[in-house]
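so my prof wants the structure for this chain in the tokens format not the other one, which i didnt know existed until like an hour ago. anyway here's the sequence
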Amino acid sequence: MPAMRLNWKGLAAAAAMTVAAHAATAAVPLPALGANPAEVSVSGLSAGGFAAVQLHVAYSATFKRGAGVVAGGPYYCAEGSVLNATGRCMTHSTSIPVSSLVSTTNSWAASGAIDPVSNMSGSKVYMFSGTSDNTVKQPVMDDLKTYYQSFVPAANIVYKNNIGAGHAMVTDDYGSACSTTAAPYINNCGFDLAGEILTQLYGPLNPRNNGTLGGTFTEFNQSEFITGHGVAATGWIYVPQACTTTSCRVHLVLHGCKQNYTDVGDQYVKKTGYNRWADTNNIILIYPQTSTAATNSCWDWWGYDNANYAKKSGPQMVALKAMVDRVVSTGGGSSLPAPTGVGTSGATSSSMTIAWTSVSGASGYNVYRGGSQVNSAAVTGTSYTDTGLAPSTSYSWTVAALDANGAAGAMSAAATGTTSADNGGGGTCYTASNYTHTIAGRAYALWGLTYAYGSGQSMGLWNIYAITTLKQTGPNYYVIGSC
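here's what i got, hopefully its the right format
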């Protein structure tokens, strides 16, 4: 994926503290637009490309139109192993067992873990691999083509692999030099890749709008579909003007690693070329976003979050499908306004109380810290005490009201607060090597360094020689300190 080097499976979910400043803006519920369920497709780059394949295969009854895959690989390529992910699925250092992956696909479909493979026979696939891409090398994409040929007619597959592009989403007028592999991982190669993908999936299109777009960009609340699991509190949707009155197509666009809103701003959402085609062809675009808590901001395609990551039951998979279902539906979400008067008080070394003004018609409230929901059940009052925090640390909280059906309304403005200093009492301390801490689940490793779970505090090098004392201040929450 863009600059994608993966750390140990199971230790990656807390790779960084979630950045909440942007997510704190008032996001609205994803709208129900009555889009055409027969006209749904997906595309993605890198980790997003692998995830696009996962969605297309596992939910083939939903993504009927097919998938666009840029620098991705075969379904379930990693088989739950980070070593497979960074090896055969990226550098092709060993061969990918395509026939075995096909067998797994058929077996899972037979058991109901994924949709019937027969759904793919009527879909389309567009594949792109740059000749200068040394992150996900072309033999991986060659194997993806072989994999797809077991389920999709050869005439329905297009594979473009003769442009000197680096590891990036390719455009015809925006981004870095074509052969570059560097942030924001959008390259100007004089080739309109978004247009080619959408044309393959939907057939001949009207000319794109190169002027001012007529539709609207909306930041929507992802937290009603999923909290945590490496997914941000908000995502983006582009709705052409005609789609407010006409049943439109839906295309889900998945960014690559290090390409979410925190990493590159709105460049992937607004500069990759999809919107100008969508504007003149009645295509609604959903741009889901990972959070910085995801490993390198990647979508899960090797199991860093959940062992069922590639099946219909995978948490990220369920959430992404639910977003499409909402846009296809004619109702859902909540029109309740954002709570006001949100503030913090009562700081201790490990807790903070958040309070707000009641919202008329609300049946309860959800509270989010850094974009992730912290309450396990709806809060019926107008205050909540968040625990398990680190001492002397600043946090940000937002609140959303719930309607009678439990759907969340618009998210409030953020309220920030800083916990007090630790007085040295309470908690349980563990003194061990950084390696031992990771094995025990108190810390995780990333880029050769070690970080405490929960607080994300840096502990130094990941090895058996660096010794650190960690204090547990809450469930799965550790800080550097002493008891």
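also thought this was worth mentioning. The two ends are 41 Å apart (CA to CA).
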